[in-house]
Specification:
Layout (H helix, E strand, L loop, with lengths): L2 E3 L5 H5 L5 H11 L4 E5 L4 E2 L7 E2 L2 H13 L3 E7 L9 H21 L3 E4 L13 H20 L3 E3 L10 H11 L6 E4 L10 H5 L3 E6 L1 H5 L3 H10 L6 E3 L7 H21 L5
Parallel strand pairs: 1-10, 2-5, 5-6, 6-7, 8-9, 9-10
Antiparallel strand pairs: 3-4
Helix pairs in contact: 5-6, 9-10
Length: about 270
C-alpha cells in the first residue's frame, strides 16, 4: 500500500529531545517497515528564527540524503513551514520568498517527489484573498512550479492556513496557476467551508494526502478515498497526527487504521 508517516507525527517527541530527523528515518524504516519518508522541515530548522525558519546548512541536508540512500528510502513529500508566500508586509514577503528558494534547493538535494509550501495568511481568520494577494500568489506559484518541473517534482500548498482552508479558493488558485507541476497536499477533511465537498473540489490537483485521527475515523473516509482515486489520484496516503503522548503507539494505531481503510476501499472495487 502507498502509505507514509508525516514527520510532524513525532513533533512532541522531537521537542522532548528524543528524536531527530535521522531517528525519524530509522523509525519509519525499521519500526514501521516503510521505504518512504514524508519529511517535515521542523526537524532541521532553527525554530527560534520563526516565523521565517532558517534551514540547516547544505552539508546537513546532504547528510539527510546520505541517510535516505543508505536505507534505500525516497522522499514522497517535503512539508515546508516558515517559507509561505503571503505576508502583508512586503519586506517580510521578500524574506519568505528567499527562504522558499533555499528550501526548494534543499528539495532537489533530498530528491523530494512533492513539496508543500503554503499560501500564507492566518490560521484563525480565514478570508478570500485580496486582488493583490491573489496576483502575487499566482505569480509566485508559477515561478515555483517551473522550478519544480525543471527538477522533477510537484509543488503547491496544503489546506493549512489562510485562504487555502477554503476549497473554492484552492480551486481558483490551481486554475489560475495552470501548471502541470502544481498541485495540493490535501489534508483530508480540513476545511473551514464546503466541508462535504471540499476534498472533491480539489481532488483533480491532489499530489499527496494526510490523514489525522479525526479524518481517519470519519464515517466518510472510504468515500473520500474513492473520490480522490476517481479523480486520478495515484499518490501516497500519509498520516499526520501529533499525538499528545505515546507517539510511537498512536502512530502505529493510525497507520493500521489507514491501511484498513485502503483495504476496505479496495474490497469495494478500488485499488489501494
Amino acid at each position: 500500500m502507498n502509505v507514509s508517516i508525516g514527520g510532524y507525527s513525532f513533533n512532541n517527541t522531537n521537542l522532548e529531545g528524543k528524536m531527530d530527523v535521522f531517528g525519524y528515518l530509522e523509525t519509519v524504516k525499521y519500526r514501521y517497515k516503510l521505504d518512504v519518508a514524508d519529511l517535515w522541515n521542523g526537524f532541521f530548522i532553527d525554530r527560534n528564527t520563526g516565523p521565517i525558519y532558517q534551514l540547516a546548512d547544505e552539508s546537513y541536508i546532504r547528510k539527510i540524503r546520505e541517510a535516505l540512500d543508505e536505507k534505500e528510502m525516497s522522499v514522497v513529500n517535503f512539508a515546508v513551514d516558515g517559507a509561505h508566500l503571503w505576508d502583508p508586509n512586503p519586506d517580510v514577503r521578500k524574506k519568505l520568498h528567499e527562504n522558499a528558494l533555499v528550501h526548494l534547493r534543499a528539495s532537489v538535494i533530498l530528491g523530494a517527489k512533492t513539496v508543500r509550501i503554503d499560501t500564507g495568511g492566518s490560521y484563525h481568520d480565514v478570508e478570500t484573498m485580496t486582488d493583490e494577494q491573489f496576483e502575487y500568489t499566482i505569480r509566485t506559484y508559477q515561478e515555483f512550479a517551473q522550478f519544480a518541473a525543471d527538477n522533477g517534482f510537484l509543488i503547491g500548498p496544503e489546506n493549512h492556513m489562510g485562504a487555502s482552508l477554503l476549497p473554492r479558493e484552492m480551486k481558483r488558485i490551481a486554475e489560475a496557476v495552470d501548471h502541470p507541476a502544481f498541485g495540493f497536499l490535501v489534508h483530508l477533511g480540513r476545511w473551514r467551508a464546503d466541508q462535504e465537498e471540499g476534498d472533491k473540489l480539489v481532488a483533480p490537483w491532489a499530489y499527496h494526502t494526510h490523514f489525522d485521527e479525526q479524518t481517519a475515523v470519519s464515517g466518510n473516509a472510504l468515500n473520500t478515498i474513492a473520490t480522490l482515486k476517481d479523480a486520478g489520484y495515484k499518490g501516497y496516503w500519509g498520516i499526520e497526527y501529533n499525538a499528545p503522548k505515546r507517539q510511537y503507539l498512536e502512530t502505529e494505531r493510525l497507520l493500521g487504521m489507514v491501511k484498513k481503510l485502503l483495504a476496505d476501499e479496495a474490497d469495494r472495487g478500488g485499488n489501494a
